[in-house]
Each structure stands twice: as structure tokens, then as C-alpha cells.
Amino acid sequence: MIKIDLFEETIFQTIKRGATEISPDVKLAFEQAIAREQSPEARKGLQATYDSMALSKVRQNPLCPDTGWPIFYFKVGNKFEIEGGFMAMEEATRRAVARATKLGYLRATMKHPLTGYDPGNNIGMNIPDFTYQFVDGDAIEMSYVAKGGGSECFGGTRHRIVAFADGVKGIEKFILDCVVASTRAGAVCPPTVLGIGIGGTANVAANLAKEAACLRTVGSKHPDPMFRKIEEDLYEAINSLGIGLLGAGGSTSVLGVNVEYAYTHIAGIAVATSTNCMVARRASSRIDADGKVTAMSSPNWFEGR
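^ thats the sequence. predicted structure below, dont judge the formating
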């Protein structure tokens, strides 16, 4: 049985790592974007962001002043056991979030939606957010994601029901319209990581889009060739728009396009987009049944589904 103190310290270190250290796949995506960027100004901006991210790791400062929503994904073995059960685990996670906020790894950005009351620790109704996936085994894998406010609130997240008759072309047109509209509004910070959810109800599609944006490694490909083709076509199309760094022009408008799907009703196809910041902050850890803790390089969320 995993001791709750071990879990709490592990989740705190995961939050700290996600807030201050960029993931290897995002780092590689930046290096590739800098190498192929045709605009000198955009290349200079990408390099400055890259250098800033490296400095954040050295100084243990937040990668971005917007530390976003604290979101957690738990991939739980069916035989996993923890002291106090899952309620204790969630309480330990809340304590870790409050501690990370007090120490400055997170900013206090979570407020009451009507009164604006700020508890000062990023803890409130339904926040942090917890999502669970149950698998074989006796270990737990935890992923912390900082979903940025700008990319979520001001146009980076959208959905629509597309008619079956419109098919893939209808899906792709809606997504391109979303990218153009959100960029024109200054609602997102290109180059982004674009997550797309196809199928299910509207909330299912939106959750899939968020998972695709936040948990798929940048540069990964969907195993189904039909959805992989959509990813490739949209990646090429969006980067051909010339949006570039922060919408100021350039050949890199999106770092990655990730699609996830669910079966849907014959009445229509729910399609959702979720935009993740170029500084795609996340970190994952694993605790084995014997208490061994491993810092993971990838969330491993989609493997084995």
C-alpha cells in the first residue's frame, strides 16, 4: 500500500517540474521549428522563448506567468492501493497545489466565477480537476497539466455539430475556421498545440480535444490512418497560413495537431478544438506498488486504450 505522504510529495514534485521544466517533446518541437523557420523575426522570437524556457529550469521559475488551471490525470492500476483511498489521494493533491502556489510555482488564478472571490491557493469548487483511467496492474501514473487561461477562455476552445453529409471536409473546414478566428481575435499565442476531439456528445468531444492537446506528445501520430491523415492535412494547412509566432507572420503556426475520437450518434458528429500554449506545460510521474517513484518523460495516457 502506498503511503499518502509519499504520494503527496510525488504529486508536488510533479507540479513543480511541470511548472518549471519543458517536456522533451516540446523542446524538440521548438528546435525543429527554429531550424525550419523562414522569417528572421519569427526565428528570433522562437529562439528567445526557447532560451527563456531553459532559464526557467535553471532558476526554477514558472515557464509562463499564466500558470493556468491545475488539472490532473490519473492512470490507475486496478489493484493499486493507497493509504486512505482515493478521497485521501485527492485531498493530498489539493494540499500539493496549495503548497506549490504558496511557494510561487503556481500563481493564484482560480476565483469564484460570479463573485471573483480568490482563496489564494487555487483550491475551490471542482478545482483542481481530476480525470481517471483504470488499467491493469498495481501502479499509478499521474500527470499534471497547466491549461493556460488565454488558450482556454478566449477562443482556443470551440465546438460544433457537423453533419455526416459534410464528412471530413466539413470537420476540417470548421477546425480551420476556429484557428483563423481565434488568431485574429488575439485569443491564442501561436505556434500552438492543437487538440481535436471528434465524436461523442459535445462534452465528450471537448474532453478528447483537451486530452489530445495536453497529453499527446508533440510530433506523435494517431495509430488509425484515417485520423492520422486529418492530423497531417491540418498541420500542413495551418502552417501554410503564415500566422507565425504570435500572429506576426512566419512559417510555424502550429507545433502539432493531435486528434482523438469517440463513436457518435447517427444524428451528427460533435467536433471540438482545444488549443494548448506553445509552452505546453505538463509533467508525469509513476509510483509502483513497492513505492518506487519514476519521473516520466511522457504522460503515457493513450497507450493501451
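The CA atoms of residues 183 and 245 lie 11 Å apart.
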